[in-house]
Write a structure and sequence with these properties.
The protein is mainly alpha-helical. It has one domain. The chain contains four helices and no strands. Helix 1 crosses helix 3. The radius of gyration is 12 Å and the shape is globular. The relative contact order is 0.17. It holds the Pfam family DUF6952.
């Protein structure tokens, strides 16, 4: 997971574009937007993170840094 790739997606793409990219990656197709990552798994991680962060920002009025921190905390808890 690369934070700059997630930040780029959040800042430059809308939710519907990210959801289309998620569907394309899951279907083993090339997404219409550029998604950073070393492989499809990492690209999917970046897109899912960006979707979660955008939803958090929209639903709760959270700023990017706070939403990113919340997301990374969720990831840490899930792998520990």
């Amino acid at each position: 997971m690369k934070i700059p790739a997630i930040k780029n997606l959040v800042e430059n793409h809308k939710l519907d574009e990210l959801m289309a990219a998620e569907a394309a990656i899951v279907d083993e197709q090339q997404p219409a937007i550029e998604v950073g990552g070393d492989d499809e798994g990492e690209q999917l991680t970046h897109v899912l993170a960006a979707i979660w962060i955008l939803n958090e920002m929209e639903d709760n009025g959270t700023d990017f840094k706070t939403a990113l921190r919340q997301y990374t905390q969720k990831v840490r808890v899930s792998i520990s």
